[in-house]
Amino acid sequence: MRIYGLTGGTGSGKSEAGRRFAQAGIPVLDADAIGHELLESTGPVRDSVLHAFGDGILTDGQIDREKLGAIVFQDADRRAALNQIVHPAIRMEIGQRCARLAEEGKHLALIDAALLGENGRLDPFLSGLVLVLAPVEMRIDRLVRHRGLTGAEARRRIDAQTPPERKIALARWVIENTGTLEKLHEEADRIAGELIRDDE
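Above: the chain sequence. Below: its structure as tokens.
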């Protein structure tokens, strides 16, 4: 089974590209969405996060991602503590889902994750990496307009991630998402066509 990565900084348009790849028929495993599922469901991940961060992150008995985000995006140590709890569980869940896809006869999948290539290396299980880029000011504007963040909150979230431009050398495909939504879709469709042809 060929597994490819899709990455890019927050506000780059990575998730929109992921939706387009899914529309092209490529299974997309969204690491962020899986992380949300793990936080929302009863189990060891939720228990460990509550133990580490306390009941103050709860709203109506559920972990409030906005409250949790407000803590971890201002404190690198708290962010690292959260990552140590959540990331291994996300990787395990992605591995299990890829195995199920393979059992169903799928030969191709895409992992949508902002942290791919963070250590400056391409993960050995990946056959290639798609990188979505956009200038920082454009990303801040998108986060303010579409996610309701303040400019300061958006910049903190961007600053908490490795500059995605550092991953260009790791990427097989780079999408410069500085134009229209239609242009982003065209680029994603072009790459999806290559991935599907490679799989034939």
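The first helix runs from residue 14 to 23.
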